[in-house]
Specification:
Blueprint (H helix, E strand, L loop, with lengths): L2 H8 L3 H10 L4 E4 L2 E4 L1 H18 L7 H6 L3 E5 L2 E5 L9 E5 L5 E6 L2 E3 L1 H10 E7 L4 E6 L4 E5 L5 E5 H14 L2
Antiparallel strand pairs: 1-2, 3-4, 4-8, 5-6, 6-7, 8-9, 10-11
Amino acid sequence: MNTTAAAETAKVTVATIRDWARRGIIAATKTAGRWVIDAASLARRIEIGARRTARKAKKVVLTADNIKAIGGNEWIRGGYHRIYLNDWHQYAGIEVTRYNTGNISSASLGGRGIANGRAYGLINAVSKVYFDVTDGHLYVQHHGADAYEIRYLNGERNQVNLVARISAGVRAAVAAL
């Protein structure tokens, strides 16, 4: 197979495939100035990379203590035991500054500027984020769809899965403890 096909298969760049071939990490021969990659050798290299990645991935376990440690507020009433994350927007990567009136004066998502109205819509799309101590799950109560269209200030459009962003942000904060 050629370097382009090998790069697509391995989900790396063509330059990485060429580097692997030059260094002997994968079996390859150069014919007429072009690399020809051995498919079996490439498959072994992909498998080795997958095993290394699997070993590095550390499972983050959410508990009442670590949710409280990142700023959660405990609430117990009747048969319910929850820990609420009132500042959930920080875990989603939404940053806002406000006027004295409370209106948004500037906003960003993941460090990139977004319209103030869009930030307001994102913040109001989620009503509650809490960890249920009884079943050990993180819940995000939201209105509407999981994905929201964002238009950055530079005109680029993108779909944002708010629930996934919040969940990943909370897990990252817990992992950083």
